[in-house]
Design brief:
With 259 residues, this protein is an alpha/beta fold. 46% of the residues lie in helices and 16% in strands.
């Protein structure tokens, strides 16, 4: 994994940091590959119950892809397609992650940075954060896999507005559009994000994974099979259900085991 993707585990909460503060964490091809690898590794770690994604430096989550790579790595359709394989690896890591994910957004969250944040389960930002996808100015298209996260999050009308106008807008407008979960004071973003991650980590991890799976499945409008409907009752056969049920009766804090 490249040094521009940092991973840290503190108890049940893991943090992935986009680590190019001198470039406001602009995304490079190795970073997309490293992001996917980091997510896959953390998702396979049974001790991790929430993953926070953030940018280094406090000034930006990410302004999107590093434009300097276009001349050497994305100047033709063939090059762009090859580059896209690594970009999609990063996005796929988020799309398929069974562990809850949370974007800690300080400052700029634009273009590819917004693509990453949109695929997280929750997004917490500061009052001064800025959002948008101004790629129309570069004559660039946001490909199908890149649009899907934004579309699933805010719907067709808002996605059209964001892509066709290409405006950069503030945190309050982002919240009104449904792009972010919560807006707090700039100096409270980190505290609120980790408090939220702690609340997530305190829940039953099997339940979190099931809920993520069910939500993904419900985007597909085909009828649910009987086996799929029956899966909702499998939680009753888990150790975590016994722990949670008895903790509720005894008025004690449950210590879930993910079994």
């Amino acid at each position: 994994m490249t040094h521009v993707i940092l991973t840290e585990i503190n108890g049940e909460i893991a943090t992935i940091t986009l680590n190019r503060p001198e470039k406001l964490n602009a995304l490079t091809r190795p970073m997309w590959r490293g992001l996917g690898d980091a997510l896959n590794q953390l998702d396979a770690n049974a001790n991790v119950r929430c993953i926070i994604l953030r940018g280094a430096g406090g000034r930006a989550f990410s302004p999107g892809n590093d434009i300097s790579e276009f001349e050497t790595q994305r100047s033709t359709p063939a090059q762009a397609k090859d580059y896209g394989n690594d970009l999609y690896h990063g996005l796929q890591g988020l799309t398929e992650c069974n562990t809850p994910t949370l974007a800690l957004i300080e400052g700029i969250c634009v273009g590819g940075g917004l693509e990453v944040a949109a695929l997280c389960d929750l997004r917490i930002c500061g009052k001064s954060s800025r959002f948008g996808v101004p790629i129309k100015r570069l004559g660039l298209v946001m490909a199908y896999p890149e649009i899907s996260g934004l579309l699933n999050l805010v719907g067709e009308a808002v996605t059209r507005e964001i892509l066709l106008e290409g405006r950069i807008f503030g945190a309050d407008e982002a919240a009104a559009k449904g792009l972010v979960t919560r807006v707090v004071a700039d100096d409270e973003v980190e505290q609120e994000a980790f408090a939220t991650a702690t609340r997530i980590a305190e829940g039953a991890p099997l339940v979190a994974a099931w809920h993520k799976k069910f939500i993904r499945r419900l985007r597909d409008k085909t009828p649910l099979s009987q086996a799929e409907l029956d899966e909702a009752y499998e939680c009753y056969d888990t150790e975590d259900f016994d722990i949670g049920y008895n903790s509720f009766l005894n008025k004690t804090k449950p210590e879930f085991r993910g079994r």
